[in-house]
Amino acid sequence: MTTTLRIPESLKPEDGRFGSGPSKIRPEQIAAIDAGATTLMGTSHRQAPIKQVVGSIRDGLREFFHLPDGYEVALGNGGASAFWEVACASLIARRAAFGTYGSFSAKFAASAANAPFLETPVIFKGEPGTFRLPEFTEDVDTYCWAHNETSTGVAAPIHRVPGSREAGALTVIDGTSAAGALPIDIAETDAYYFSPQKAFGSDGGLWVAVLSPAAIERAARVESNAHLEGARRWVPPFLSLIEALNNSRKDQTLNTPALATLIMMENQIRWLNGNGGLAWASARCAKSASILYSWAERSEYATPFVTQEDARSTAVVTIDLDEQVQASQVLAILRENGIVDAAGYRKLGRNQLRVGVFPSVEPSDVIAFTKCVDYVVEHL
After folding, report:
1. What residues bear N6-(pyridoxal phosphate)lysine in this entry (predicted)?
2. Which of 170, 202, 249, 346 could be cross-linked to 196 through a Cys-Cys bond (beta carbons 3.0 to 4.6 Å apart)?
3. Are residues 251 and 374 in the same domain?
4. Which CATH number fits the domain that encloses residue 347?
5. Per the confidence metrics, is the pTM higher than 0.90?
6. Domains in the chain: how many in total?
């Protein structure tokens, strides 16, 4: 392919991957797969070598999130989108309330709306670029929203809806693009779930959930149909949170997992904890995000999409470009120069850059990214 514009090597980042998920994977994680080529890859996930990897993941996440007493880590196949269905089957007893302010927060709400055994959910809708939290509602037993809306670069606060705990309601938070990048007090949640292809620098196809004692008790009660007066609710094993938890307690998953995903995630968690855990990771992401927001605010052609500063994500940064600068053209030239995956979310339909600044991304590479964009725009 002929390069339309060659960016000077001196301006380029050392690593040109800025995806919002899948995200940058460190070379050490790939080396961990190579190291396990004969001892881990191609072996049973129910045998000791893989159980040790899963056990290390669970122990590492306990340390990373400083889990309160009684909280447990569960794993299952299918990714965070599969956990929406798990939550509908096993956590929501009758009716949920959702804060929706982007594509992914709305998809979980749609799952609950389509579940024939659940009552119509209560939706508190915000516009893209803002967040909207659910409000206390008398007949709601589960409150749900996203810590970080990947599609728009909005971060929402995490705290229980006032009065919800006293009413026996659960707080279920999508942490997919936030977990490992944004600060969180897990005690403010009952289920904090995510996939490993963002801050944990691995591949998709796995969900991880941090569960409170209340969430575990709710799942056991719902799956036993103890909350129902009429017809039984069918919870297939693949969507059973109790099945997933029981297997996780044995350091395994119900179904065969992708072993490379587990190996890379385990390596990443050890790397994060070795550098200072969540405090270090969130500070590193905040530094990278501030570089982008400050650059956009100084720019003559770029502006932060999220106008409310305290709603701006420090994991996924969205930058609008002036209509005279076509993001598609800028992105094409960046890709030809090895700088990839900075496109805005397709369904949002904006003239926009979207940059993942997860812990694996070097802040110095973020600085280089801004210089490369400036160079491309100057030479268009």
Report:
1. 198
2. 202
3. no
4. 3.90.1150.10
5. yes
6. 2
Through-space distance between the first and last CA atoms of the chain, rounded to whole angstroms:
19
Residue 100 in marked binding region: no
Strands 316-321 and 302-304: antiparallel
For residues 73 and 205, membership in a common domain is answered with yes
Instruction: Give 94-122 pLDDT, tens digit per residue.
Output: 999 999 999 999 999 999 999 999 999 99
Query: Is 117 annotated as belonging to a binding site?
Result: no
Three-state secondary structure call for residue 340: strand
Task: Please provide the size of the chain in residues.
Answer: 380
Which residue type, as a one-letter code, is found at position 93? A
| Mean pLDDT for all residues in the chain | 96
Q: Which of 53, 311, 273, 251 is nearest to 180 (CA)?
A: 273
Residue 255 lies in a domain: yes
Question: Binding residue per annotation — 46?
Answer: yes
Residue 1 has pLDDT above 50, yes or no: no
The reported pLDDT for the residue numbered 296 is 98
**354 has binding-site annotation:** no
| Domain endpoint, select from 237, 258, 273 | 273
Q: Are strands 72-77 and 191-194 parallel, antiparallel or unpaired?
A: unpaired
Q: Is 80 part of any known ligand binding site?
A: yes
